[in-house]
């Protein structure tokens, strides 16, 4: 029969734990986020539906995005045990310079709409973390203001080719003058993809004050107060716009561009050139032969052609075709540090992360971006240790198996 007794204070005292009380509501929210999925749930609660859906959504039936995420989930990681992994090194080299982690912050449009701190918040985190940041042509902070916000950050400028080539050339010259180290040419948007969530939500830039959005404001007052009481949305590349995203893209972008136009890009830009939006081995060869220093295997986060090739699936073939003399990056569907490790093991120089940091931005501004980065960095470090790998450079195809 069990003998019971009243516990003594000396026995209870070691079990008592005091927990630090976080008074700041943003920090309290972010402390509870252990994964990028957690940040996504917080972002969804704190952001108007149309803005969240613009970030979260993809084209048409969103098959491309689901396939990309599913393939990352289906990757099998193959550890090697009995290795000394007491200290691991997550640094790597991108475009000949060190990066503290094997990823860069991807270019995203209309970032100040997700949170009023916008691009400046992201580039400041990039500077502190030691990873590159790419400013979009469709960003909502100017080339010069982003450069001033984080003078020591590694900054890349993402360019869409406009029908007005003189305007595009001016953007490239401004980026060079502001100290951006690389130009990222996005080539998978000859026309806008059919992003049906945006159409159904009546999403415009900036958001229109309709009965629907006014009702939504009651649910997200902080977001609307920040939008209406801070500097009006402007763009890295144009002064203003009043309409849908699709209309904007179709008005500005040049659907006549061909690989021959890379010679024009090379004539006005003399630093590293990254071509983003490659989805086949053949196109990777074409742009490499035309002078690209790096390619990004990307289907635009599933936001252009639905049912497009899944970038992670294409990665090994592209690396085999051009990886000896061209850096190869990959994006779309990345939601964890383990995803980044898997891509690196399959031959990627690094990854571009977009939605993951935007969820953090919507959840808590600059602190949210920092939290997203902390989560990814911890997952990368832990995955390397559990794989029995001490450095990013030691990752090989033997560490992963694609289904």
From TrEMBL:
Task: Specify whether Flavoprotein is a keyword of the entry.
Answer: yes
Asked if Oxidoreductase is a keyword of the record, the answer is yes
The Swiss-Prot or TrEMBL record lists the needed cofactor(s) as: FMN
Q: Which domain of life is it from?
A: Bacteria
Pfam families, per this entry? Answer: FMN_dh
Give start and end of each FMN hydroxy acid dehydrogenase domain. 28-403
Query: Which InterPro entries does this chain map to?
Result: Aldolase_TIM, Alpha-hydoxy_acid_DH_FMN, FMN-dep_DH, FMN_HAD, FMN_hydac_DH_AS
Locate the active site. 300 (proton acceptor)
Any one Gene Ontology molecular-function term assigned to this protein's record: FMN binding
Q: CDD domains given for it?
A: alpha_hydroxyacid_oxid_FMN
**PROSITE patterns, per the entry:** FMN_HYDROXY_ACID_DH_1, FMN_HYDROXY_ACID_DH_2
Cite the binding residues for glyoxylate.
54, 160, 195, 300, 303
Q: What is this protein called?
A: Alpha-hydroxy-acid oxidizing enzyme
Organism expressing this protein natively: Phytoactinopolyspora halophila
Q: What is the lineage of its organism?
A: Bacteria, Bacillati, Actinomycetota, Actinomycetes, Jiangellales
């Amino acid at each position: 029969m069990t003998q019971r007794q009243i516990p003594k204070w000396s026995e209870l005292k070691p079990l008592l734990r005091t927990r630090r009380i976080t008074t700041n509501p943003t920090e309290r929210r972010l402390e509870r986020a252990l994964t990028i999925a957690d940040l996504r749930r917080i972002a969804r609660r704190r952001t108007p539906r149309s803005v969240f859906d613009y970030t979260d959504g993809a084209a048409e039936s969103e098959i491309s995005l689901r396939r990309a995420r599913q393939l990352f989930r289906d990757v099998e990681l193959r550890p090697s045990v009995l290795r000394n992994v007491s200290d691991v090194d997550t640094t790597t080299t991108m475009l000949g310079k060190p990066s503290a982690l094997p990823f860069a912050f991807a270019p995203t449009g209309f970032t100040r709409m997700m949170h009023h701190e916008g691009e400046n918040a992201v580039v400041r985190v990039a500077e502190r973390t030691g990873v590159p940041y790419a400013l979009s042509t469709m960003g909502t902070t100017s080339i010069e203001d982003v450069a001033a916000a984080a003078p020591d950050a590694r900054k890349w400028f993402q360019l869409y080719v406009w029908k007005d080539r003189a305007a595009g050339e001016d953007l490239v010259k401004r980026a060079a003058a502001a100290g951006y180290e690389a130009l990222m040419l996005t080539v998978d948007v000859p026309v806008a993809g059919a992003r049906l969530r945006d159409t159904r939500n009546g999403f415009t830039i900036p958001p229109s004050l309709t009965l629907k959005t006014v009702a939504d404001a009651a649910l997200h007052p902080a977001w609307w107060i920040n939008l209406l009481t801070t500097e009006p949305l402007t763009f890295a590349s144009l002064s203003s716009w009043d309409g849908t995203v699709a209309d904007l893209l179709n008005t500005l972008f040049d659907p006549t561009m061909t690989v021959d136009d890379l010679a024009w890009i090379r004539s006005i830009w003399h630093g590293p050139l990254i071509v983003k939006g490659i989805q086949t081995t053949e196109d990777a060869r074409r742009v490499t032969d035309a002078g690209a220093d790096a390619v990004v295997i990307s289907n635009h986060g599933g936001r252009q052609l639905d049912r497009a090739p899944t970038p992670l699936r294409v990665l090994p073939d592209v690396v085999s075709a051009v990886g000896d003399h061209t850096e190869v990056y990959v994006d779309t569907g990345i939601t964890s540090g383990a995803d980044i490790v898997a891509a690196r093991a399959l031959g990627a120089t690094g990854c571009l992360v977009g939605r993951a940091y935007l969820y953090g931005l919507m959840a808590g501004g600059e602190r949210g971006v920092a939290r997203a980065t902390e989560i990814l960095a911890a997952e990368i470090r832990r995955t390397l240790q559990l794989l029995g790998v001490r450095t990013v450079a030691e990752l090989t195809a033997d560490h992963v198996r694609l289904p």
